[in-house]
Write a structure and sequence with these properties.
The protein is α+β, with helices and mostly antiparallel strands. The protein has two helices and two strands, in the order αββα. A hairpin with a 2-residue loop joins β1 and β2.
């Protein structure tokens, strides 16, 4: 399968798994605000840490994924310290 310039390097999710919920803007200081509805859906509270993972195609960033850092840490622990 060939990839055109307009296609993302991220795998195409099923329609039921992927939905644009909101658009956010970046201010002059480079900050963005997650809308209240999105914070509630994610269970994000003041003081929570978020991890940003980037997907690359060559040397160009094509996708960004945001995870709650505490959940990402749990996944790393599963890999580093697997249960026997």
């Amino acid at each position: 399968m060939s990839t055109t310039k307009s296609e993302s390097c991220c795998s195409k999710p099923e329609v039921s798994q992927y939905r644009i919920e909101s658009l956010v803007s970046i201010d002059d200081r480079g900050q963005m605000v997650l809308p209240k509805e999105i914070r509630e859906k994610l269970g994000v509270r003041p003081g929570d840490k978020l991890a940003v993972a980037l997907s690359y195609k060559g040397n160009k960033v094509c996708c960004a994924h945001i995870f709650k850092a505490i959940e990402l840490a749990g996944k790393v622990k599963e890999v580093v310290e697997p249960e026997e």
